[in-house]
Amino acid sequence: MTRLGRRDFLRGAVAGSAALALGFPNVARGAKPYAGQTLSVFSYAGAYESTLRKFLIPTFEERTGARVKLDVGWWDMLPKLKASPPGQPVYDVVLTDPTQGFPSIKEGLFQKTSPAHIPNAKLLAERLRRDWIQADGWGVNLTGSLMVMTFHTELVKTIPQHWHELLAPEFKGKLSMYDAPYQSLFAFAQMKAGKEGRPGKGYEELKKDLDGVLRFCAEHRDIVRLWWTSTGDFMGKLLQKEIVGGVSHSTGPFAAEDEGKPLKSVVPQEGSAIVQIFWLVTAGTKVKRLAEEWVNDFCATEFQVKWGTVGKIAVPNLEAAALAAKEDRFYSKFLPKNEADWGRIVYYPYDIYFEGNNWARINDFWDREVLRKKRG
Question: What's the domain range around 211?
Answer without folding.
Answer: 145-274+348-375
